[in-house]
Specification:
OB fold (Dihydrolipoamide Acetyltransferase, E2P); mainly beta; single chain; 12 strands; 1 helix; 38% strand; 6-stranded mixed sheet
Length: 123
């Protein structure tokens, strides 16, 4: 009886293996626009086959501002004035992926899409 259980377990494992389960792969960013990832020097994935999480996309904010003010003097209020523009450069919150970055990829089960899980450090 124990032999039959082992045969069933092996058949189940073989079936899962044949169904192209989720695979982990490593890649290198070759291009940003358009996005291309070279996978283990075997093939290159274009952006049509890649899913990129928000945390790996460049994010910047503008803090540029101008203030409107009215000077109050002994002679009374003066016409409205404006300050000069301040903080004209955008502030980068996240750099996003860069050419040469090593990334960890997860292939969807039975599919051709790859999720870029994260950037690898020291790889």
């Amino acid at each position: 009886m124990m032999n039959m259980i082992q045969i069933i377990k092996k058949a189940a494992l073989d079936a899962v293996e044949q169904s192209s389960p989720v695979n982990i792969a490593y890649g290198t960013i070759e291009s940003i626009n358009p996005l291309e990832v070279s996978v283990n020097q075997k093939f290159t994935l274009t952006e049509d086959f890649l899913i990129v999480p928000e945390r790996l996309i460049r994010y910047e904010v503008s803090l540029e501002h101008i203030h409107k003010f009215t000077d109050i003097t002994p002679a009374g209020p003066q016409p409205e004035s404006y300050t000069e523009k301040a903080l004209e450069d955008k502030l980068v919150i996240r750099e996003g992926l860069q050419v040469g970055d090593k990334v960890l990829l997860l292939r969807e089960q039975g599919g051709q899409k790859y999720l870029i899980i994260d950037r690898l450090v020291g790889a």
